[in-house]
Each structure stands twice: as C-alpha cells, then as structure tokens.
Specification:
EC 2.3.1.-, 418 residues, 29% helix, acetyltransferase activity, 3 domains, Chloramphenicol Acetyltransferase, OB fold (Dihydrolipoamide Acetyltransferase, E2P), 4-stranded antiparallel sheet, PSBD, globular, alpha+beta, acyltransferase, 9 helices, Dihydrolipoamide Transferase, lipoyl, single chain
C-alpha cells in the first residue's frame, strides 16, 4: 500500500487546501493521472498518481486545509493487488483491460463500468466554475480539444439563467407564487480561505513587522510619451504592445543600483541586512483570484521590448492561473500599477520581506507652474512605501528623484542602461 503525502510544491509551503478530488475511492488510476487539485500560496496545483493502482482511501474532503507531509490518500499498487480465486479463467479476466471499460471481479460476479471523461479546463477556469456554482462537467468546451474556456462558462450561465426565468414565468402563469422576500437587510458570509486568506496573512505579516512610511511625488510624462511613440514602429515590427511599465522597470533598476538599501531585506533571525545585487522586479497583477505578483527575473539584463513582452505574458498567465511557483517568488522590489483604474495616491503595503514598493497612479493633464507660467502637462503621481528600519526619508526622496530624472528625460534612461 502506497501512502501519498501532501508535498511542498512551493518554496516553504506549509499547507494547502483541497479544491477538488478528480477520483473517488475504488477507482483504478494510471501513473501520473491527475488525482486532486490543491490550492497553495497563490497557485493551484494538480497532483498526480505516483503509481498505477486502485485508490483505497481518501482522508480529506473538499475545503479541508492539509499540512505538508500529511497522508491525503492511499493507493494499492497494481503489482500489490491480489485477486481472489473466482473460477474465471485468466483469459476471461483480461476482458476490459483495454479500451475504456474497467472490469472489477468481486464475490464471484463481474461488474463493468465506463470511466467518465473529465472535462478539460485550466485550474483558473475550474475555480471560476465553482464561484459561479456551475457543474463544469455539464459544460461543453469550445476550445482546442474541447477545452472549456471562460466564455463557455459565461454562456452556460446565461443559458441556465434564461431557462430558470422561463420556468419562473411558467410557474407564475400557473398560479404558483414565489416566496416573498422579507426586509432589505441581508448579509452574506464567505469563508476566508485559499488565496484571499494567504493575502490577508501576508499583509498582516508585512504591516506588523515593517514600519511603513510613504513618500508621494509627481512626474511629467510628456517626453516619455513622445519617446514611447517614437519606438512604436519598432515594437509593432516585433508584434509587441509597448506600455509605460517597461520604462518604469528600467528606471527603477537603475535607481536601485545607486540606492542599494531599496533592494534589500532584513534577516530577523541573524539580525543582518541583506543587500541584493540581483534585480527581480515583482509586478502586482489583479486577477479573479486576488492580487498575484509575478516576477521578472534579472530585469537589469533585459531590453525594453523584452520587458514589455514578458510583462504581457506574465499578466496573461496570472489571470489564467497558469503561473508556476518560480514565477511568483524571489522578487526584490515590487511595482503596483493602479493607474489604469484611477486614483491620485495611496499607501501601498510592502511585499514582505522586501524594503519598498512603488505604486503608479493615473496619468492626466493638469495645470502646473513652470518658469512662473501656468502650462498644461501630462502628470502622474507615484507613491513609495519604504521600510523605515532600512531607509531614511532623505534616501527615499533621492530614489524617487532619480526615477523622475530618468523618465522625464528619456535620453538619460537610454544613456544609463547597462
């Protein structure tokens, strides 16, 4: 009998939540067949059978939180399965071992069953189906090989709602009344679990450990916008959508090399400051699962176009729930770009154990004073939250001044790239 223990599929993962069992007790499974879907810190993982055999015992239910190293199911391996003497010849007993029919010999009789074909869908789509209260096995997929997409779920929901409405109208016509709703005061209770719980724990850890200070500044974006537009012809040739974010990544990396404590952390166990000479930039990304921070590794070694393409790919993978553990860990500094949804300034919470986080806010034309005259400029605010144990206010201001200097004069950005 083989015991399957919950593995550490991440870096320092302590527990996982059972999201969905893909088999049941008594099922025959093949090696590497998906068995269970587990939600860890910010990613969903499908765990597979370590060997072929029969699932003998499942120890946890959907929604249970399981610690790493705990046995979650057992498998009786194929070479360990003892078949009682049934009086049926070996040749007869081979029936069903090919194709999609399983033969179970038990108490001198034979039962056959067809294995259900599991719906093809990503963990993100499966989670979306659960939130929409849709049985994903009833949905017809329109993607490659019949894979179920977000659009399929929405269409299924619309069709289901239409059917329910028609049924309600029929009931009304036949004199059946719906139960009246009493009062306007309602509340809904949602379990704090999964990714949202992990985010909550991470935020509490950050705020309770790091003394946050936030510095707010503004910068002119006119020259950078013009510079970006000049590069559009080249980005179009490479089929790359060029945004402002890659320029910020480059400017931040250059500034981090000059102000090293912004790219540092504190080892509380040894009471040491760790200055990092590598530049892994986290990009906070909003998804249906919550805030995910995919990481651009070695951002200082990549071009503007390479950064733009990687940011796009990581954002898409984040929204689809396809990021690996390596893609969401190891950041040394984080950017939170809230500009597309608005806002003037904020107090972003540092991505522990990093030393700082920079939030970018909306761009808008404003009247500003230049050389004692009022002029209109394309302006953007940025908010830098920093760890006051490591960074003084003067250093924080110097850091944002460096970013401003580079972005307001993009030729400086190009000159200082290395």
């Amino acid at each position: 009998m083989m015991e399957f223990k919950l593995p550490d599929v991440g870096e320092g993962m302590h527990e996982g939540e059972i999201i969905q069992w893909l088999i049941k007790e008594g099922d025959a499974v093949k090696q590497d067949q998906p068995i269970v879907e587990v939600q860890t810190d910010k990613v969903n993982a499908e765990l597979t059978a370590p060997a072929a055999g029969v699932v003998k015992k499942i120890f946890f239910s959907v929604g249970d939180i399981v610690e790493v190293g705990t046995t979650i199911f057992t498998i009786q391996e194929e070479n360990d399965v003892s078949v009682p003497d049934t009086g049926i010849s070996e040749e007869e007993n081979q029936v069903g071992q090919s194709g999609d029919v399983n033969v179970n010999v038990n108490a001198q009789h034979i039962t056959t069953k067809h294995q259900a074909v599991r719906a093809l869908a990503t963990p993100f789509v499966r989670q979306m189906a659960r939130e929409m209260k849709i049985d994903i096995e009833k949905v017809k997929g329109s993607g490659p090989a019949g894979r179920i997409t977000e659009s399929d779920l929405k269409q299924f929901k619309e069709n289901d709602s239409f059917s329910r409405e028609k049924a309600k109208q029929h009931d009304d016509k036949t004199g059946q009344e719906m139960a009246p709703i009493m009062g306007n005061e309602r509340e809904e209770r949602i379990p704090l679990k999964g990714i949202r719980k992990k985010i909550a724990e991470h935020m509490v850890k950050s705020v309770s450990t790091i003394p946050h200070v936030t510095h707010v500044d503004e910068l002119e974006m006119d020259r950078l916008k013009e510079f970006k537009n000049q590069l559009k012809e080249y980005s179009d040739d490479k089929d790359i959508k060029l945004t402002f974010l890659p320029f910020f990544v480059k400017a931040i990396v250059i500034a981090l090399k000059e102000f090293k404590t912004l790219n540092a952390s504190i080892d509380e166990r040894t009471n040491e400051i760790i200055l990092k000479n590598y530049y892994h930039i986290g990009i906070a990304t909003n998804t249906n699962e919550g805030l995910i921070v995919p990481v651009i590794k070695h951002a200082d070694q990549k071009t503007i176009f390479q950064l733009a393409d990687e940011i796009r790919q990581l954002a898409a993978q984040a929204r689809e729930g396809k990021l690996s553990i390596d893609q969401i860990t190891g950041s040394t500094f984080t950017i939170s770009n809230v500009g597309p949804i608005g806002g003037m300034h904020a107090t972003p919470i540092i991505n522990y154990p990093e030393a700082a986080i920079l939030a970018l806010h909306k761009m808008e034309h404003r009247m500003v004073v230049r050389d004692l005259e009022g002029v209109i400029r394309l302006m953007m605010n940025m908010s830098l939250s920093f760890d006051h144990r490591l960074i003084d206010g003067v250093t924080a201001v110097q850091f944002t001044n460096k970013i401003k200097e580079l972005l307001e004069n993009p030729i400086r950005l190009v000159v200082e790239m290395r």
